[in-house]
Amino acid sequence: MKQRLPKKMAALAGITLPVLLLVGAGAVQAQAADSVSQEGNAYLQMMNEMGGNPADFNIDDGKKLWSEKRGPKHASLQQCDLGLGPGVVKGAYAQLPRYFPDTGRVQDLESRLVTCMETLQGFSAKEADKAPFAKEGGNASPLENLAMYVAHESKGMKIDIPQNNPQEKLAYENGKKLFFYRAGPFSFSCAACHSESGKRIKISALPNLTNAEAAKSYATWPAYPNSQGVARTLEWRMLACERQQRWPAPKFTSNAVIDLITYMGVNSNGATLDTPTFKR
Asked: Does some domain include residue 9?
């Protein structure tokens, strides 16, 4: 005697095979993606634990540039005030961006280095920030080398981006607004990729930058991305992100870039800096 299925089960039976095939294929793809992602993360972790980052050479070059007499004034940067007093490098990066009374603006590391190159060494603004980013696979610029050196001097220290005055608080709020602002041909924002936990693009994890998880990214820059073959800074990372969003390229050391870095930095306060690291 032929057994009859209940109506609901009969209806499901008609679509079971194609649905199972689709679900099964999706599950296999998800598992494969998870496996690749885990392997990619394990690779980066291994590279960072091994030591011997190529960016070490940039740090050495930056240290030499810091004390080298350059520019029209034939002077070094050893009296550059990065926020903790003239010539104090140790721990300075951990407290940048911050407000500087002499320029009347909130500055990140690179914009402050440009200021010191102008005031102490006599470079013009155009000369100071000329070609600030190396070409892919090329040699780092002097500014990148200086940034790598200064940032490395804060390695192992706690991030403590100040929010002590109206200008610093405004930089944070403007950075937050820009982070969620949708624009460009695809109506894209930073938040599209970085406002939820557990997301990724291919094998790259996408940290949530709206809370303390931001430190997973912020605390590890400057870095050496293997795909670039050259050391990179946070200013470059912001430029790359906005390019991927199909936004107009922001000007180097612009308020927009510094505000975004301030937003990420303040959200990372309390985390320990670990730079330079390897990136994909």
From this structure: no
pLDDT digits over 151-189, tens only? 999 999 999 999 999 999 999 999 999 999 998 888 889
pTM for this one? 0.81
CB 95 within 8 A of CB 161: yes
The answer to whether residue 41 sits within a structural domain is no
Q: Which domain holds residue 271?
A: 49-279
- CATH code of the domain covering residue 272: 1.10.760.10
Instruction: Point out the catalytic residue in the list 80, 116, 193, 241.
Output: 241
The reply to whether 16 falls in a domain is no
154: left (phi over 0), alpha (psi -120 to 50) or beta: alpha
- The total of structural domains in the chain comes to 1
Q: Are 96 and 108 in contact (CB under 8 A)?
A: yes
**Cα gap 19→75, rounded to integer Å:** 72
- Residue 227 in any domain: the answer is yes
Residue with tokens 């985390």: 271
For residue 245, give every residue at least 6 positions away whose Cβ sits within 8 Å of its Cβ, in sequence order, or none. Answer: 183, 184, 186, 188, 189, 190, 192
47-86 residue pLDDT tens: 556 567 889 999 999 999 999 999 999 999 999 999 999 9
Contact status, residue 136 vs residue 229, Cβ threshold 8 Å? yes
How far apart, in Å, are the Cα atoms of 94 and each of 88, 145, 274? Answer: 12, 17, 11
Q: How many angstroms separate the CA atoms of 20 and 127, rounded?
A: 63
190 is catalytic: no
Tokens of 86: 């003239």
